[in-house]
Specification:
With about 140 residues, the chain is mainly α. It folds into two domains: about 45 residues, no CATH class; about 90 residues, no CATH class. Helix content is about 75%, strand content about 0%. Helix 2 packs across helix 8 and helix 3 packs antiparallel against helix 4.
Length: about 140
């Protein structure tokens, strides 16, 4: 009887831990996991650098962004149409800092490192990087 109660308590504790999203790692795997994460980070940084340094004609133009992402929400559709008509490279910061679907989609793509969703933003990322670099120089 006491063993049954102890098992129930142990099971409930493990369920609580799972609900909290806790991860347990073996110290043996720690070094290999660390190397893997560093390698993935470096490759991801290289991808973003390549996107930023590409010539405009070699990467997707911003209109492919409106072709690639077709939001279902009518407000987001309107924003994408507005982006398609009014976007210029010198307005990249403006478009990125607006609370729109563009900001949400790009941040999700970068956060999840989804290359298929990052590539259509290539031109926009390049323009944003250049504009931020220009602003940084003015700030210094």
């Amino acid at each position: 009887m006491q063993n049954n109660i102890q098992r129930r308590i142990d099971n409930q504790r493990s369920v609580r831990v799972d609900r909290m999203g806790t991860n347990v790692y073996s110290s043996k795997d720690n070094k290999s996991m660390h190397k893997t994460l560093n390698g993935e980070f470096i490759l991801y940084q290289m991808l973003l650098e390549q996107i930023s340094n590409r010539k405009k004609e070699l990467i997707f133009h911003q209109n492919s962004l409106t072709e690639y992402f077709k939001p279902e929400n009518s407000n987001d559709q309107q924003v994408m149409k507005e982006f398609d008509k009014e976007y210029t490279p010198d307005k990249a910061i403006h478009w990125y800092t607006r609370e729109t679907c563009i900001y949400k989609i790009l941040n999700k793509a970068l956060r999840t490192q989804c290359i298929d969703d990052i590539i259509p933003f290539g031109s926009f990322i390049r323009d944003l990087t250049k504009q931020l670099d220009d602003e940084h120089i003015l700030f210094i």
